[in-house]
Design a protein that fits this description.
Chain A is of the alpha/beta class and 986 residues long. Helix content of chain A is 26%, strand content 19%. Among the domains of chain A are: 151 residues, Rossmann fold (3-Layer(aba) Sandwich), CATH 3.40.50.740; 148 residues, Dimethylsulfoxide Reductase, domain 2 (3-Layer(aba) Sandwich), CATH 3.40.228; 129 residues, Barwin-like endoglucanases, CATH 2.40.40; 257 residues, Alpha-Beta Plaits (2-Layer Sandwich), CATH 3.30.70.20. Chain B contains 11 helices and 1 strand. The chains are: A alpha/beta (986), B mainly alpha (219). At the A-B interface, strand 2 and helix 29 of A face strand 1 and helix 7 of B.
Chain lengths: 986, 219
């Protein structure tokens, strides 16, 4: 029992029982109303209650006082100013510049605008003109700066570990490949990741033309393999599918996390939420989600069904059969028939205005069924679009890599050029790619990092980050962006384009010349220079989105795979932030809590309480996962809403040569992933180990003691009672306070957060981190409850542990009118501004932390240690010069991006006008794909924020405390199907 | 019974008590004085530069406008130090062989910046914005003093927070008509209080209550 209390284990049987009440909970302990486990009993500081003596305390105090006094004796060090020699036109020191470019997230573009301070890229914003962005970005685009400024990036060309010059490589490589000319290049292979870049594609094809015996292979471990296979089956050709959620009334997600992950997710989240935010909210869309693990999309669903991976295919078949799109399977005994039939009826009632979207990692059969259903429902060209593939050369990548490995083993590959990628780490385990690689005479790896694969190749060529060199890429709908660099390469690096050019011609060209030459032939413009300038300025090639095609369905008789379930199945998914492992050394992404688990710095074996109970597993206990002769060890994480008889593991972890950040974080699930089961295997065994391994989750940090944080209701009830939020809110009279009244005559900055729109993608958290110089603290500090994120997205559950409803609430500083933090500060370091901001003055703060104790929302963060990368080049190049870089011993918190307020106010005053509505966007607001966050002046009734705060759904969090927050929320609405009474069913 | 304390004990105790108290006061007074001394604030200390640039000559003597070199002062938080090219606009012709100007020519040849010593240096947590001050009628000399009389530039004001607040609390005593902002010779008239109040109103200068909010300068 003692052990149980210590690790927070709770009787699992209790979790599988039906819910006791409708209150909100966040963890097993809260769900059962159990005492807080010892491991979570920290004081506010996060330090386990210590036993040091009074004498030692006094000694330490005296010492620190003396040292603190001494710090006052330093003189400000002399600084130098180094002006330009020839100042470029338009550069104004002190004012940032913005350039349009695109982030190739796993090959697929998201258009962005990057802020640059005197040549340093410091912040990524969305490009409002780009169809994949519409001004917002996903998490991965936000965090790309930490890849650029990664201190572990490889800095020089090496040959078998010895530094060499580019010329030496060029000579050896051209000689070697030139010698193959007689055999038409047989023996030369190129292995790339998915290529959407037109110019890179042309470059590779030019090589293949010159050396007709050479072959091109592609492999992306987490790419849309199933979608490609399904397209070949159904249409007998390759297609790219994308969706238009703006016109979708009903959406059925078949294991798809389309709101928070994958190509186009930023746009999808925008369009999806726009249909939930719209004016009177009366034409709100409805989302059905069937999924094999708890995702952000599932948590948002109006109706969610947790099914095992194999059962999702059956469920999809059942719905398809009801719609008349497929022959019926054996679903008569399915306990979820009512749910599935209701969803099918709803879809049929919205022909032409619904979407069936399959998850990228679901089986080809499910994809085929989705194609069939969308065709049957008449969605094609209305909500579902088909185009030519955005890849240059779509192939079955697993087969492609298999052929390559076989040829390598057979000695048919002499020269292997790897353009990015990391197959030694992430190739299917049965290929044994590493062994095959040893048989290649000369191998070249081009990459940003010296990774597991670089270690085994002859040459490693450092690749420039996309912010350092020219390129091009396509978005989810085919829109092309010319990638323009913002900074000269930090290290001696050579792009994939350039490396290919070295074997095409001599002298080789630069990336700029290659990309320009390609587009000068393709642009079709009269005046190419003007076209080029416009295209790079706008961040996209106008009209380059691929036209819709109408592929005929050739084969609807999709064979049912009929996989036997087995006792326990395993589902592999790419990590939502590390993707296939390529972002493993990104500090921001490592520490960003995963949407539903709030885990940081680790992956885990996710399973349901019932499965854990059956296998006798406990939370955070170690298990060995065995499959087909291979095994890997990981920690167990019991996840609410996970289907029984299934485990989910995230790929991309357990790297050994990622760098100091990524090495050793999590476990490597690729070790048990084989080519016959890329996403799902039914033959997994879990063996309990007598070990524990603590996982750092932020889910239970800043507990709010069961208070109803998210007010929510159904759309139906809202239609009848518009004042729902007010009914639940208990706001004391305004004058019932000891705080003096203050009239705000000028601006009164305020924020409104729409909980109906929020999809928990957490792009706002990274955007805040980037904008406000927020440090990363590391796993140990997260375990000690000291993460520094100023903004967090809380997840609250309601209902049973096995099939809960999730609610999301982004929580920044509330900027209370009656701020409890201000009155307890002994040094007035936190106080109220004339515009109602709750200021935090770092240079006044002495670190008593009283303010944090007194904050009911727990939004204040204390710098316990020197977390900042003050002198840690190149990471410190990312710092926003408009925000103080905080030191140790200082409290900090959300400032409403006061630097942006100041900038806009000064600009407005210089132009002699008031600040316009929407002129100030906080970092979290600007990045939000769903426009859930609105900021503005609430004193001006025409401002959007004032209108939103006047809505009947508006409520203040913990309003009974009479803190009168400036940040208010719009209550969450769900559009439930009257046929299905409960929010979820399982 | 033997005496525990000698005869001198009382005197010793008195010295200790009063001496200790006065020592404490002196230490505090001394630190207060040091903190505000020119030694600490660097006020009025001419700073050595790689090139002994004289504002006295260029501004006082030749009458060059501030904005010829400090071009960004009206648009940016930062009033830039001019690029080497600006120096060379004239010095490729004038004093083109002067050994004193060799670092300038060297910079222009090599493309490496001249490393000027920063004279007016605020702490990192203070965010001063030139453009808004210039816009609201705070003259250059108000903070930088008569640079037209500085052979080597020094910091004319203490740049302490108290000094900043002094102006933010009483803007009317420090502002001037906008067209005189860049004037070196302007001095506040007899009726400054009256003129100042009028200018505050005309130019929409914020109230002292707003201007002394912490986030005006600290973020």
């Amino acid at each position: 029992m003692k052990e149980q209390a210590k690790y927070g284990f709770v009787p699992l049987e209790a979790l599988t029982a039906s819910p006791s009440s409708a209150r909100q909970w966040r963890s097993a302990a809260e769900y059962l109303n159990a005492p807080v486990p010892e491991s979570e009993q920290f004081d506010e500081a996060g330090v386990p209650i210590s036993e040091s003596s009074r004498r030692r305390f006094l000694g330490l105090m005296a010492g620190s006082m003396a040292l603190a006094g001494l710090t006052g004796c330093t003189r400000q060090p002399t600084e130098t100013i180094m002006p330009y020699v020839n100042q470029p036109e338009n550069v104004v020191p002190g004012n940032p510049k913005y350039y349009a470019t695109a982030v190739p997230v796993a090959g697929v573009a998201e258009g962005v605008i990057v802020e640059s301070h005197l040549g340093r890229p410091t912040k990524v914003e969305g490009n409002p003109d780009h169809p994949a962005s519409l001004g917002a970005t996903c998490v991965l685009s936000q965090a790309c700066l930490m890849d650029l400024y990664d201190p572990d990036r490889v800095k020089e060309i090496t040959r078998e570990g010895v530094p060499r010059e580019w010329d030496a490589f060029e000579y050896e490589w051209t000689q070697a490949v030139g010698a193959l000319a007689g055999q038409k290049g047989a023996g030369l292979r190129i292995l790339s990741e998915t290529v959407t870049s037109p110019s890179l594609g042309a470059q590779i094809q030019a090589v293949l033309k010159k050396y007709s015996g050479a072959q091109w292979h592609q492999y992306d471990p987490a790419g849309p393999h199933s979608a490609r296979q399904a397209a070949q089956t159904v249409f007998r050709r390759s297609v790219n599918t994308y969706y238009n959620f703006a016109d979708a009334d009903v959406v059925l997600a078949l294991d798809s996390d389309f709101l928070a992950f994958g190509a186009g997710s930023t746009r999808y989240a925008h369009d999806f939420s726009a249909r939930r935010r719209r004016g009177d909210r009366l034409d709100m869309n409805r989302l059905y989600a069937i999924e094999s693990t708890m995702t952000a999309t599932g948590g948002k669903a109006d109706h969610r069904l947790a099914l095992r991976y194999v059962d999702i295919e059956r469920a999809a078949r059942h719905i398809a059969a009801e719609l008349g799109a497929a022959s019926a399977g054996s679903t008569a005994d399915d306990p979820h028939v009512a749910w599935l039939s209701a969803a099918a009826r709803d879809l049929r009632a919205h022909k032409g205005s619904c979407i069936v979207i399959p998850g990228e990692h679901q089986s080809p059969e499910v994809h085929a069924l989705a194609h069939a259903m969308n065709a049957e429902l008449g969605n094609v060209d209305k909500t579902v679009y088909y185009t030519d593939p955005i890849e240059v050369e779509p192939t079955d990548q697993v087969q492609s890599l298999r052929r390559l490995t076989e040829d390598m083993n057979a000695g048919r590959v002499q020269y292997l050029l790897m353009l990015g990628g990391n197959p030694v780490y992430n190739a299917p385990a049965d290929f044994q790619f590493e062994k095959a690689l040893e048989k290649v005479k000369t191998s070249v790896h081009v990459g940003l990092h010296f990774n597991e694969t670089s270690l085994k190749t002859t040459w490693h060529i450092p690749e420039p980050h996309f912010l350092e060199d020219w390129g091009d890429t396509r978005a989810y709908d085919g829109t092309v962006t010319i990638i323009q660099p913002l900074i000269a390469p930090l290290y001696d690096s050579h792009s994939q384009l350039k490396v290919l050019d070295a074997i095409l011609q001599w002298p080789g060209r630069s990336s700029y010349e290659i990309v320009r030459a390609y587009w000068s032939g393709k642009s079709g413009a009269q005046d190419f220079e003007q076209w080029w300038r416009k295209t790079t300025h706008d961040g996209l090639v106008t009209g380059s989105a691929l036209p819709a095609i109408h592929p005929a369905i050739r084969n609807l008789a999709v064979p049912a795979k009929g996989t036997a379930g087995g006792a326990l199945e395993v589902v592999f998914r790419p990590d939502v932030y590390l993707y296939d492992g390529r972002y493993a050394n990104n500090v921001w992404l490592q520490e960003l809590p995963r949407p539903m688990t709030k885990l940081t710095w680790d992956n885990a074996v996710f399973l349901s309480p019932a499965t854990a109970a059956r296998l006798g597993l406990e939370n955070q206990g170690r298990v060995e996962l065995r499959r087909a002769g291979a095994s890997v060890r990981g920690s167990v994480w019991i996840l609410p809403g996970h289907p029984d008889g299934s485990i989910t593991v995230d790929l991309g972890w357990g790297r050994t040569h990622a760098g100091q950040t990524g090495n050793g974080a999590g476990f490597n699930a690729y070790l048990v992933r084989r080519s016959d089961a890329m996403w799902h295997g039914s033959d997994v065994e879990l063996h309990k180990l007598d070990e524990r391994y603590p996982l750092a989750t932020t889910q239970m940090h800043q507990a709010m003691e069961h208070r109803p944080i998210v007010i929510h209701n159904t759309l139906e009830e809202y239609k009848n009672h518009h004042d729902l939020a007010k009914q639940k809110e208990h706001e004391p009279p305004e004058n019932l306070t000891l705080y003096p009244h203050w009239e705000y005559r000028g601006y009164a900055w305020a924020m409104s957060i729409d909980t109906t729109a929020c999809v928990n993608c957490q792009a706002c958290v990274v955007a805040c981190q980037a904008e406000n110089n927020i440090p990363v603290v590391g796993k140990e500090q997260v375990l000690a409850r000291r993460p520094m994120h100023w903004l967090r997205v809380d997840v609250y559950y309601e209902g049973g542990y096995q099939a809960p409803t999730a609610h999301y609430a982004p929580i920044p500083c509330m900027h209370c009118e009656n701020a409890p933090c201000e009155v307890v500060c002994p040094t007035q370091a936190t106080n109220h501004s004339s515009e109602g901001l709750n200021n935090m003055v770092y240079n006044r703060c002495v670190g008593t932390r009283y303010c944090s104790n007194n904050c009911p929302y727990k939004v204040r963060r204390f710098n316990f240690l020197l977390y900042q990368d003050w002198h840690d080049e190149p990471r410190n190049l990312q710092h926003n010069p408009d925000v103080t870089v905080r030191s140790r011993g200082v409290m900090e918190k959300c400032t409403y991006c006061v630097q942006r307020i100041r900038e806009a106010e000064i600009k407005a005053e210089i132009e002699n006008r008031p600040v316009r509505d929407g002129e100030i966007k906080t970092a979290c607001q600007q990045v939000c794909p769903t426009e859930a966050i609105v900021f503005g002046d609430k004193n001006n009734p025409s401002n959007r924020v004032a209108k939103l705060q006047a809505e009947s759904l508006n409520y203040s969090m913990l309003s009974d405390l009479n803190t009168r927050p400036r940040t208010t929320y719009l209550a969450e609405l769900r559009n439930q199907n009257p046929e299905l009474k409960k929010g979820t069913s399982a | 019974m033997a005496q525990y304390f000698s005869r001198n004990a009382d005197t010793f105790a008195r010295i200790l008590i009063f001496g200790g108290a006065s020592a404490l006061v002196s230490v505090l007074a001394l630190s207060y004085l040091i903190v505000r001394s020119h030694y600490e604030t660097m006020q009025n200390v001419p700073r050595e530069q790689p090139v002994p640039f004289s504002h006295e000559h260029h501004v006082g003597g030749l009458g060059i406008d501030c904005r010829y070199c400090h071009t960004t002062v009206e648009y940016s938080a930062f009033a830039n130090v001019p690029p080497t090219k600006t120096c060379m606009n004239c010095h490729s012709e004038m004093w083109a062989a002067s050994p004193t100007l060799e670092p300038v020519r060297e910079s222009y040849r090599s493309g490496k910046s001249i490393e000027w010593t920063r004279v007016n240096d605020l702490p990192e947590y203070v965010y001063f914005n030139h453009s808004i001050h210039v816009q609201k009628g705070v003259g250059c000399t108000e903070c930088h003093g008569r640079v037209d009389r500085m052979p080597l530039t020094w910091q004319a004001a203490p740049l302490t927070m108290e000094w900043c607040l002094d102006c933010h609390r009483h803007t009317e005593l420090h502002i001037r008509p906008r067209d005189r902002v860049f004037s070196m010779t302007y001095s506040h008239p007899q009726n400054q209080a009256e003129l100042g109040l009028r200018l505050v109103k005309e130019d929409h200068v914020r109230s002292s209550g707003e201007l002394t909010s912490c986030e005006i300068c600290h973020r």
